[in-house]
Structure formats: C-alpha cells, structure tokens
Amino acid sequence: MEALIERSAFIGLEQATWFFGGAESPPLAGMRDAVLAYVANRSKGPVGRKLNSEVEQACRDNLAVMLQGSQEQIALLSNASEAISAIASSIGLKPGDNVVIHDLEFPSGVLPWLALKSAGVEVRVVASRAWRVSAEELLAMVDGNTRMVVTSHVSYLSGARIDCAKLYRELKQTNALLLLDATQSLGVVPVRINDADFIVASSYKWLMAGHGGGVLAINPERASQLMPRSAGWRSVEDMFSDTRFEHFRFLPDARRFEGGYPAYPMLYAMKASTDLLLSVGIERIERHVLELGAELIEGMKRIGYKPMTPERPEERAGNISFVCEDGERYADELLKRGTYVWGGDGRLRASIHLYNNSDDVARLVGQLEVIAREQAS
Predict the structure, then answer these.
(1) What is the pLDDT of residues 297-318, one digit of tens each?
(2) Partners of 214 in the β-ladder
(3) Is this entry keyworded Membrane (predicted)?
C-alpha cells in the first residue's frame, strides 16, 4: 500500500520511519516556507498585519470545513489544555454538580476537573474494559447533576474510537454537555462539530502544524450562552468604545474565548498543513490509515503482540497500540534503527498517517522480530 503523499513533502522523513504522529508529526517542508512568509510579512508593517489576518481567516475557514461547521464556531488558542481549562472555568460548576470522565483520558482532559473538586464538584471516573469505554458506559454515570461529559474521540492510550454521535444524541436528552477532545483524530478521520457541544484539538499532531496552537470549536445549539471567565481585547465587540472603562460585551461567536493575538507562525504553518489535508481528503486519509492499520495489526499479531486497539475499523483511527510491558526500552531500540514509535504505559503505539506505507509497516514488524531475537540470545 502506497503513501498518499511523497516523503519529500516533509523535512527529515526520508531518513526515518515515522509512526510518531500521535505525539507529533514530521515537519512539512511547507511549514518552513509558511514561517518564512510570516517573517517576510512582518517586515511590511501595516500591510503585514492585513496579510496575517488573511492567513488567520483562511486557517479558521479550513478548520471549519474539517469540522463541518462555520468559521464563527472556531476559536484559536495556544493549546488544547488551555481550551479545556477555559471551558471548565466557564460553565459555572457548583457544589453538588458532577463531571463524567474515564480512565483512558489524557491528563489535559482530567486535571481541570480535578482542580474543581475543592469547590465541591464531583468527578466520576468510568473504568475502561479491555482498553476501551463505550458510550453506554459513560451514559450510565450521568444523572440529573451531571453538567459535563469529557472524552477523547480517539484514545491516546489504546487508540479506541468512541461513537461520539451516539453519545451526543443521548446526552442531548439531559442537561449534561459533551466536551470532545479530537487531538488524536482531527486531520486523520472525520470530526463533526454537531456531534458535541465543544471540540478541542492540538496543532502539532495529526493536523501536522507547529507547536503553539489549540483549536476550540463551539456548537451553538446548547452552548451559545457560555461566556469566558476572562476577557482580552480580541474577545470583545468594541475594545475602544466610549464606555470601555465601564463595561464591555463579549463577541457573540467562539472568538469570545480568544484573549489576544494568536501565534501567527503556527497559524501560517497550520494554514499550509490544513490546505494539504483538505486537498488529499479526510475520508481518503481515513481509508488509508484503517487499511494500513489492519496490515500492522496482522503483522504484529503474527510476531506475538496483543493489540490494545480494537480491530474493527469503525472503532479505531490512526493510533494502534500493543501490549508491551517494556515499551520504553523497545521504543529506544527502534529509535536506534530510525523508527519512531511511542513506548510507555505498558504499550507500544504506532501512529499511522497519510505519509506511511506498507514498507513502513513491514520495517517496523521486521525490526521488532530482530530485537526479540537479540533480547533472547
């Protein structure tokens, strides 16, 4: 199976076998060009500011297309953790309220809610079974005092993909909102803003841009009245109004969560990377990673590795994890051979994106066979 893009489109990819996209992607050559364009535009003074705004708008529009929403629903922050914390501080949780999470969540989806326990907020943790959590198991923990359910679309740990559409349909019959962390899915499988109240993501993983960007998408169907607990000049309607020393009005769309300027070098890079992703097509990328993931699962099972990730295509995405008690050491051994995977937490994780091919899969499986023989001798 061939890659969907030439390796020459990336910096350094021709010297490595990159299964590290769940941590961070290889840098696009277009990222370098985009950052240089930002620097050149900065030298143009007022004209540069106008050009920055145009790139920002184009990036916001691309994200809206990927989320099947509108650009007014998109806020551009510094990282996904900031976005989750902004939502956690804005929904006005009170003593006796509860939040439902699960034990496959990345810490950024857990810590903001734990910080509210001292204020009397209960944090309910759903225990995973066989490295996955179902929509039904989350819903079983929801009651009349549940204000928020938090889950990743795709688990960083196991690679399991949750049926967020089903989960949201059921939650809309309650007072509980849904925050979906799409950090491990946006850019590699379809993500729909209408399947959650809030969606967050990071810029440097599957979106293939640089560090310093966080996406916050807000579905106005149930969350239009949510207001930030902090304000900045970019979050208000008229920062120079005659009454600016007396009161202000937040912007009516998602930009009310943007306090000041975004990281423009990152936005230039993300505009370039989302242009590329959209030109290839998210559905086409999804088909590619699911088929290649099946190859990897079969190859790893053949040499004795147990998948943590569901084998059914609709229950996974780009992250494929395998049980490996000494995962860090095996990842280090693979690194010596020029293959990048994530090792730790009792697992090896290989993240497949549009730049991977069948040769990459065969190389990873073959290298692990060699490492096993070396360890046994």
Answers:
(1) 999 999 999 999 999 999 999 9
(2) 77, 202
(3) no
